[in-house]
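User: Can you predict the 3D structure for this chain?
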Amino acid sequence: MWLTVTTMSAVTPYNLHASLGYQLSLAARIQERRLEEGLKTLGLTRITWCVLLAIGNENLRQPSDIAGFVGIDRTAVSRALRQMETGGLVARGTGAGDGRTRTVVLTQSGRQLLVKGTPMALENNAILETRLSPADRKCFIALLQRTYAGEDVSLGHL
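Assistant: Here is the predicted structure, written as structure tokens:
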């Protein structure tokens, strides 16, 4: 519920830099930017990286399953899969049964990029993790999970 205030003098000023949302966004953007810079050298984006992980590490074959794993909508996954198929990273075929379903597998090129990108992603996470003790990391994850408990965590994009 939003509060409507009629006079600015009665409103407590909003301190952007002291807000939890700003600090959370800043930390996330720093992590994302560092990962994106590394992935760009491989011709990947964060979305295509996540799709590679879904297919190569999680053995997901259906676009809807990939979308659920990545946390983005089916349209964004379809767009990424088209781009990845054009780039020779994935191959798509019809599923067993009715021919309306699609299955996705990594090509040799896709598997090679997954292998090359993994150290980059691990290093990116390690940078953040080394700044926190093991107990702090566990607590931080639990606190973050509480902040979005009960929310729709699917995103339209990453």
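The beta strands are 90-94, 102-106. The helical segments are 20-40, 46-56, 63-70, 74-86, 108-129, 134-147.
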